[in-house]
Amino acid sequence: MEKAHRDEKDKQQVKIPSNESPELYDIGQDIGIAVNSANIEELQKPRLPDSEYRTLVRSLNKKQKDFFYYVLHWCKTKQEPMYTFLTGGAGVGKSQVLKALYNALLKYYSSQPGSDPHDTHILLMAPTGKAAYGIKGSTIHSALLIPASQGFHYKALTSDKLNSLRVKFRNLKIIFIDEISMVGNGMFTYIDKRLQQIMSSNNIFGGVSIIAVGDLFQLKPVFDGWIFNDLTHDYGPLASN
Ligand SMILES: Nc1ncnc2c1ncn2[C@@H]1O[C@H](COP(=O)(O)OP(=O)(O)OP(=O)(O)O)[C@@H](O)[C@H]1O
């Protein structure tokens, strides 16, 4: 009887609200355990209901709206990838903009002729499980199958993993990387190489747009250099737009 009571109490303590997608929280990244496989089915998140989305966009202030429409317009009108940094101090509303943009782009890409609902057009990633959970996204390691705790020497994907990511990302257009201050230059270079491999392209980041979100005055990378230090790659084109 007492044991049953204890079990029930334990269950209550680990209970996660049903709308929070607990499977997205990858504790391995926070405690340093390697990720072996990505749950690539989980990469596409459901869209907000239309009324909630409209309320969210209406709530954006002038600066937030400027950025929101700038990215949206680019994605709708230009063929070339965009590389942009959304920054600002803690609590200025970066996550709100990210959420609004994610939903706007999801709506746009899924309404394109021939769009397949299984395609991942947009990826939301963050360097740690906690940060990924905050944006209901994935960790960089799990989304791109990057082995943890093995340094940044590039390890090419085996053909079976590569094939499954190629299928999933064949129409990948844009990646949001939150908490960019915690992404070091080693990891940034790794992301670039991984995307080139997945997209079979020699273009930077495999030709996928990158929106980095964060505040470089916040947390710095662990076991890696600042993103702007000692880059072994020439990321000059990233500064052009
Ligand atoms: N335009 C806005 N109008 C009203 N409230 C807003 C607006 N933008 C953001 N907020 C609110 O401000 C708070 C902080 O916003 P948010 O989490 O998006 O900031 P942030 O820049 O991502 O912060 P951090 O860098 O700490 O992650 C939230 O409660 C959010 O709902």
From TrEMBL:
GO biological process: DNA recombination; DNA repair; telomere maintenance
Catalytic activity annotation: ATP + H2O = ADP + phosphate + H(+)
Annotated EC: 5.6.2.3
Domain DNA helicase Pif1-like DEAD-box helicase: 60-223
Highest rank taxon of the organism: Eukaryota
GO terms for MF: 5'-3' DNA helicase activity; ATP binding; ATP hydrolysis activity
Residue ranges with Basic and acidic residues bias: 1-13
Region of interest (Disordered), ranges: 1-23
PANTHER family reported in the protein's UniProt record: ATP-DEPENDENT DNA HELICASE (PTHR47642:SF5)
Similarity field: Belongs to the helicase family.
Designated name of the protein: ATP-dependent DNA helicase
Source organism (scientific name): Stichopus japonicus (Sea cucumber)
